[in-house]
């Protein structure tokens, strides 16, 4: 049986008809030793032999059938993932990249596939290309699309790939954006299974009001009772939703990632300047409205009333 690498128990199908999906083989060479294809390609013995594939990375809801798993010459890794925006792709990117890198370094050829070879597997390959060449999401997407024209990661995967690039191709649990992402994932899991999975246990912080050893120097207290309700480490910096909306209305974007060459201070300064410009525009709009005839007359009446 093929060597199977996965973090979960796998039950391959013995009876599934390989022709029932009527899929044509679709596969493209993306990089040295790296192929991106669909399920039909991964199930086709002849194609695998012609390509010289030695490793298969399956990103799907079900593993490959036993007819493929039973091939002793293949090393297969299985990632269970649905093609929906709320799925947690980013957690698997480092292990997928390591699998691809190690396979190619040992002289192997890797096929990465999902069902159609469009979203899930394409996202994994884009993540690998980002790390290998130090690219941002947009540049990696263009590179992969030039090799396989019909790729299309869903919006959730795109956001996670951009975050992956922002964190310099590793999972940084101290990164504010990644903290927000994990909190969102934890909320979804808690809603589904009514219990918080162990992998999110680190998100539960001790009561800052009871910490006596090495307390955070910056704390936030209740205005009335003065009890400590949060420390600086509990705060996740973010741009308020209303500010994002106003920026979007003005065709402005939040500060770009580090791949633009800007450091943190420059990113912060860029945001401040954008917010200043936005505030000025909003004030100008308000003054224009205040200077309208009807408004001026109303303001004058208010002033007279105030004077009396």
Automatic annotation (TrEMBL):
Q: What sequence ranges are listed for the domain Tyrosine specific protein phosphatases?
A: 87-148
Q: Which UniProt keywords apply?
A: Cytoplasm, Hydrolase, Nucleus, Protein phosphatase
Please give the Pfam families that the UniProt record associates with this protein. DSPc (PF00782)
Q: Where is the Tyrosine-protein phosphatase domain?
A: 26-170
Catalytic reaction equation(s)? O-phospho-L-tyrosyl-[protein] + H2O = L-tyrosyl-[protein] + phosphate; O-phospho-L-seryl-[protein] + H2O = L-seryl-[protein] + phosphate; O-phospho-L-threonyl-[protein] + H2O = L-threonyl-[protein] + phosphate
Coarsely, its chief localization is: cytoplasm
Family matches, as SMART domains: DSPc
* Database matches in InterPro entries: Dual-sp_phosphatase_cat-dom, DUSP12, Prot-tyrosine_phosphatase-like, Tyr_Pase_AS, Tyr_Pase_dom, TYR_PHOSPHATASE_DUAL_dom
Which locations, inside or outside the cell, does it occupy? Cytoplasm; Nucleus
Tell me the PANTHER family matching this sequence.
DUAL SPECIFICITY PROTEIN PHOSPHATASE 12, DUAL SPECIFICITY PROTEIN PHOSPHATASE 12 FAMILY MEMBER
The family note in this entry says: Belongs to the protein-tyrosine phosphatase family. Non-receptor class dual specificity subfamily.
Provide the protein name: Uncharacterized protein
Q: Which organism is it from?
A: Danaus plexippus plexippus
What taxonomic classification does the UniProt entry list for its organism? Answer: Eukaryota, Metazoa, Ecdysozoa, Arthropoda, Hexapoda
